[in-house]
Amino acid sequence: MPDLPYRLNFGGFTYSKKHSRLYMHVVNDPLAPHRICVVGLQAKVTGAKLLRTGEPLNCWQTYETARDEHRLFVELPESVPDKLDTVVALDVEGDVVAQQL
């Protein structure tokens, strides 16, 4: 997993190249609207779900031209299944590449 250009306030990532899956470890649950924004991830994310329950999560990616930033947004449920480390499985296509700023 390459280094992202910004500090991650929610936790961190692990990566399984074998399964083309990025695991987002949420140790600091965001307050309403329960949305996480990751800046700098260029890999195409094709789906997101809670690892523990399999519940699908809404996610989308944007690119802000003015700031030259790739952004990934993931919406978590109001009540997360694990207060210590909620793991979100992100299915990715291709290599996991971080934007260089």
Q: Order of SSEs, N→C?
A: EEEEEEE
- Overall structural class, as computed from helix and strand content, comes to mainly beta
> Rg to the nearest angstrom?
13 Å
How would you characterize the largest beta sheet? 4 strands, antiparallel
Number of helices: 0
Overall geometric form? globular
Q: Indicate the percent of residues in helices.
A: under 10%
Strand segment count: 7
Strand content: 35-45%
Low-confidence parts, pLDDT < 50 over ≥5 residues? none
For the record, give the distance between the C-alpha atoms at the N and C termini, rounded to a whole number: 17 Å
**Overall pLDDT:** 88
Widest beta sheet: strand line-up: 1-2-7-4
Please specify the SSE layout and strand pairing:
Elements: E1 11-16, E2 21-26, E3 35-39, E4 44-50, E5 59-64, E6 69-75, E7 86-93
Structure, described:
By secondary structure, this protein is mostly beta strands. It has strands spanning 11-16, 21-26, 35-39, 44-50, 59-64, 69-75, 86-93. The strands form 2 sheets. A 4-stranded antiparallel sheet has the order 1-2-7-4, with no helix packed on it. A 3-stranded antiparallel sheet has the order 3-6-5, with no helix packed on it. It is globular, with a radius of gyration of 13 Å. The model has no long low-confidence stretch (mean pLDDT 88).
